[in-house]
Amino acid sequence: EEFEELFKRAVSEATSAFGNGAVFIEKFIENPRHIEVQLLGDYYGNVVHLFERDCSVQRRHQKVVEIAPAPNFHPSIRKKITNDAVRLAKSVGYENAGTAEFLLDENGDHYFIEVNARLQVEHTVSEEITGIDLVQSQIKLSEGHSLASLGMIQDHIHMKGCAIQCRVTTEDPAQNFQPDTGRIEVFRSGEGFGIRLDGASAFAGAVISPYYDSLLVKVIAHARDLAATSSKMSRALREFRIRGVKTNIPFLLNVLENPKFLSGTIDTNFIDDNPLLFQFEATQNRAQKLLRY
């Protein structure tokens, strides 16, 4: 009933802002999965893919947890979506690293969203399952090396195991993810075999200001399958000790231990459909209480 009025409003806004009232109408995909394909292209027309990532665990369209490869992903669907991503990149002469993003419906049909012509935050999980250093590859390709000279021939690129990335942020999930600020009084990270940490401001004494992104550290786990990787990630996150600012670690732990997540049956409505993700256990913080006493 509201469509005609909203359509006219969109045309009016577009005309006012851009002098062009053309409106694109996209198909609505119900309960989609957000799948993206990592690409690398050289300066000689060659493009390869490093398989796909599932970025469906999102809050307000912002990715929170990323998985590679996508769980419960039929090989035929993988072949179609990666082939289309490579074909798209080749058709425009794409060079260096990039990501083709798609929505996948419940029938296994994929729909193109966009290409991000850069290295993305979640590139780490693609590195973990393929063993390819994407940052180094960018530099080598910019120097004029071909993909073949770097040993990156599609048939030689294989997946090994499963990787998960969690974005640890200075946000309080109990307060609707309100950004927290202050000085980090205590910082101890989780670590161990198969755990990788990518971060900058994560150390004791760091001052978290309201003027920059709330991302504190990226935690990446790699193991043989989704269940083992989730368990390893959960253990690493529980080993973190961060005092002075709130973080979203309690929320991430709830995600990692959710049965639907562990079964790989996730879509972009996963967080909204699971209110139990927002029930948290009270933290003890015994050490600092003792020191203050």
Automatic annotation (TrEMBL):
Give start and end of each Biotin carboxylation domain: 1-276
Keywords of the record: ATP-binding, Ligase, Nucleotide-binding, Pyruvate
What is the recorded name of this protein? Answer: Pyruvate carboxylase, mitochondrial
Q: What's any GO biological process attached to this entry?
A: gluconeogenesis
Read off the InterPro entries from this record.
ATP-grasp, Biotin_carboxylation_dom, Biotin_COase_C, CPAse_ATP-bd, PCB-like, Rudment_hybrid_motif
Q: Mention any one GO cellular component term assigned to this protein in its UniProt record.
A: cytoplasm
Q: Name one GO molecular function term.
A: pyruvate carboxylase activity
Which residue range or ranges hold the ATP-grasp domain? 23-143
> Which domain of life does the UniProt lineage start with?
Eukaryota
Q: Tell me the Pfam families matching this sequence.
A: Biotin_carb_C, CPSase_L_D2
Tell me the SMART domains matching this sequence.
Biotin_carb_C
